[in-house]
């Protein structure tokens, strides 16, 4: 059988990708001229290799400054029910938060219906900007259902800039989380979201809405989130039944 030759640009792309993964290039790539000389190729061939790296959001070209290595995206496996802090610890990263709101509110209509809150009832709303290693990754607005456990109301007295909500619910309150239903779509950031996440208004983002249920079938949490599209990706594992 005749072997299929691998295009030169693809071999360069794989080599540069491996160098970036090893940390050989951790901040900036050599100039195009230097790379062309090293690999003995034309600029056209080299640029095809660089385009593959750009397409995967591994590098970014800045006119007049050069080509820079982008920070690795945070990857979340959406088949596993974990919180932002737990995901960060799994990856060996530090999760912190800026609390924008942590208080009791009269629930919005969709929240009241989902939680089956009686007229005049209150829910906890916890709104935070989530950071990984000091960089803003997303904004989360969580509504918590005190009908599941009245002690949930005490979350408003906690320092949620440092604490994990899922740790409090599972380890301190003994709430058993069973499953979650989630919708995910692409959106554009509002002015307020872009300001907090330090990107341009209108940038693409990942919008998520999660409904988390206990082992008794009660919805304990609704979270509406927006994550930076350039720093976040979701991984789905599908199994054959």
Layout of helices and strands, plus pairs?
Layout: H1 8-22, H2 32-39, H3 43-55, E1 59-62, E2 66-69, E3 74-77, H4 84-90, E4 95-105, H5 109-115, E5 123-132, E6 135-144, H6 165-172, E7 177-188, H7 191-197, E8 204-214, E9 219-228, E10 232-235
Parallel strand pairs: 3-10
Antiparallel strand pairs: 1-2, 4-5, 5-6, 6-9, 7-8, 8-9
Helix pairs in contact: 1-3
Report what the structure shows.
By secondary structure, the chain is an alpha+beta fold. The protein has two domains: 8-69, Arc Repressor Mutant, subunit A (Orthogonal Bundle); 74-235, Chorismate lyase-like (Chorismate lyase), CATH 3.40.1410.10. 27% of the residues lie in helices and 33% in strands. It has seven helices and ten strands. The strands form three sheets. It has a six-stranded antiparallel beta sheet. Strand 1 and strand 2 (66-69) form a beta hairpin. Helix 1 packs across helix 3. The protein is elongated, with a radius of gyration of 23 Å.
């Amino acid at each position: 059988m005749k072997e299929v030759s691998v295009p030169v640009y693809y071999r360069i792309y794989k080599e540069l990708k491996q160098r970036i993964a090893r940390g050989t290039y951790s901040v900036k790539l050599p100039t195009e001229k230097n790379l062309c000389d090293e690999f003995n190729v034309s600029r056209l061939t080299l640029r095809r290799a660089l385009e593959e790296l750009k397409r995967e959001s591994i590098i970014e070209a800045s006119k007049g400054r050069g080509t820079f290595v982008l920070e690795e995206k945070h990857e979340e496996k959406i088949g596993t029910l974990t919180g932002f802090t737990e995901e960060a610890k799994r990856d060996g990263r530090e999760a912190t938060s800026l609390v924008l709101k942590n208080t009791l509110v009269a629930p919005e209509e969709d929240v009241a219906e989902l939680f089956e809150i009686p007229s005049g009832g209150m829910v906890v709303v916890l709104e935070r900007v989530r950071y990984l290693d000091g960089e803003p990754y997303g904004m989360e607005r969580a509504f918590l259902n005190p009908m599941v456990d009245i002690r949930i109301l005490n979350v408003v007295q906690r320092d949620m800039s440092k604490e994990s909500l899922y740790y409090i619910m599972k380890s301190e309150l003994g709430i058993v989380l069973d499953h979650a239903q989630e919708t995910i779509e692409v959106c554009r950031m509002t002015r307020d979201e872009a300001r907090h996440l330090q990107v341009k208004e209108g940038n693409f983002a990942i919008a998520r809405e999660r409904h988390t249920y206990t082992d008794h079938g009660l919805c304990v949490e609704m979270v509406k989130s927006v994550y930076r599209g350039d720093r976040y990706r979701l991984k789905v594992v599908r199994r054959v039944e």
